[in-house]
Amino acid sequence: MNVELECRASSSLKNYCTTLSPNVEMNVELECRASSSLKNYCTTLSPNVELNVELECRASSTFENKHTTLYANAELNVELECRASSTFENKHTTLYANAELNVELECRASSTYKKHCTTLSPNVELNVELECRASSSFKNKHTTLFANAELNVELECRASSTFKKHCTTLSSNVELNVELECRASSTFENKHTTLYANAELNVELECRASSTFENKHTTLYANAELNVELECRASSTFENKHTTLYANAELNVELECRASSTFKNYSTTLYPNVELNVELECRASSSFKNYCTTLYPNVELNVELECRASSSLKNYCTTLSPNVELNVELECRASSSFKNKHTTLFANAELNVELECRASSTFKKHCTTLSSNVELNVELECRASSTFENKHTTQYANAELNVELECRASSTFENKHTTLFANAELNVELECRASSTFKKLLYNTISECRTECRAGMPSQLVIQKLLYNFISECRAECRAGMPSKLVIKKLLYNTSSECRTECRAGMPSQHVIQK
């Protein structure tokens, strides 16, 4: 059936009770281009049907499509455009198994779109592009997708629009690709989004201009991949609460609040075989808080958190179980404050923490515990008017600690309670080059002390060596001018000690060596 009905000048068209049996192709082009009204009621299509309906009400028209039902093996391609002062309503659209829905609904100029109660059964692909680009309102409620469903929803409310999506449920083997953009003075809310096993979630939600985003109660079960890119780049507020990911989940969250935004991530839990790649950037006058992030065994955490301009970062209660690799790059480069408390890493964990507070920042790291087979590579630099404190760092057997801590300009460094057990190698290079304070307390070490004094000799040189099974060599070279006191006490037993003192310009007053 190929029906072309045109009512181009002050006409009215009504099509009631059109029924098509199986293996039917319907191509209906109904155009009411000038001051017309179209109504299509009770259109029923049986299996193996292809429906291509292009209904355009381009000039001062009103379109209503109610009670459209499509059964198995149906493909629905509905392009409904209400481009000029129109109103579109699509209610009670039901698609059964093996159905593909490609709905492009555009309300581009002062229109209102409402879609209620859309249900899709298994093996369904939903590609919905709904755009409300100019002063429109979009609501998508009660969208349910069952097993083996792919959802690709691109919803854009780019100009003074409001978007709400409630109660979206996806069962096993589901791929969700939701791109929701509210780029200009819009409000987005995504509540109660649930994804079951083997689900992939790719959510790109952008609220780039004076928008508000809230994502609550997002739950992902086993074998889930979450790729959430949420950007609130201009005067926006983002809240992500109660995000739970179970086994074999990969979380790639890129959350950027680059301009006067606030980000909060609460209660993010990841179970075994999880890879977490979180890049959270709050680059301009933003505040970031990450609470209660828990990762179980076989977890890789790559967190890059940058608060580069007048931001505050807090990371509390991060727990990683065995076989964990933690690569945390946290940079607070401009007038920021960073706190990392209660970071615990168990066996076979690798911690690579690069924390840089380069400009008027404050860094505090408390209660970092690493169990056996741990490699810790911490590069912490506080290069400009910063304060660094690293307390209660404990490393167990077979641990390698490579800590390079540099406080190069008017900084204070304190390293307390560093304990290393059997088979541990400690390579600590701590340099405090300008008005700094350094304290180093080590036991069971091989110590070499070389003192060179080129101008002025000290008054006393005391070297006491009492060590076990230890060979100590102390060389002191004083060429010109010595400090007031140089005291080196070494307690070793059963050692061979050699002390060589060469003084080329000015000798000390006393030289005491006790063996």
Explain how this protein is built.
By secondary structure, the protein is mainly beta. It has a domain at 451-514. The protein is built from no helices and 58 strands. The strands form 5 sheets. The protein has an 18-stranded parallel sheet, with no helix packed on it. It has a 17-stranded parallel sheet, with no helix packed on it. The chain is elongated and about 120 Å long. The model is unreliable at 1-510 (pLDDT under 50).
In helices, the fraction of residues equals under 10%
- Morphology: elongated
Rg measurement, Å: 34 Å
Largest sheet: 18 strands, parallel
| Oligomer type | single chain
Low-confidence stretches: 1-510
* Global structural class: mainly beta
N-to-C span: 110 Å
Task: Count all strands and give the number.
Answer: 58
Mean pLDDT: 38
Put simply, the count of helices is: 0
Portion of residues in beta strands equals: over 45%
Characterize this entry briefly.
With 515 residues, the chain is an all-beta fold. The protein is 0% helix and 54% strand.
Write the layout of secondary structure elements.
Elements: E1 2-6, E2 13-16, E3 19-20, E4 25-31, E5 38-41, E6 44-45, E7 50-56, E8 63-66, E9 69-70, E10 75-81, E11 87-91, E12 94-95, E13 100-106, E14 112-116, E15 119-120, E16 125-131, E17 137-141, E18 144-145, E19 150-156, E20 162-166, E21 169-170, E22 175-181, E23 187-191, E24 194-195, E25 200-206, E26 212-216, E27 219-220, E28 225-231, E29 237-241, E30 244-245, E31 250-256, E32 262-266, E33 269-270, E34 275-281, E35 287-291, E36 294-295, E37 300-306, E38 312-316, E39 319-320, E40 325-331, E41 337-341, E42 344-345, E43 350-356, E44 362-366, E45 369-370, E46 375-381, E47 387-391, E48 394-395, E49 400-406, E50 412-416, E51 419-420, E52 425-431, E53 448-453, E54 460-465, E55 471-478, E56 485-490, E57 496-503, E58 510-514
Parallel strand pairs: 1-4, 2-5, 3-6, 4-7, 5-8, 6-9, 7-10, 8-11, 9-12, 10-13, 11-14, 12-15, 13-16, 14-17, 15-18, 16-19, 17-20, 18-21, 19-22, 20-23, 21-24, 22-25, 23-26, 24-27, 25-28, 26-29, 27-30, 28-31, 29-32, 30-33, 31-34, 32-35, 33-36, 34-37, 35-38, 36-39, 37-40, 38-41, 39-42, 40-43, ...
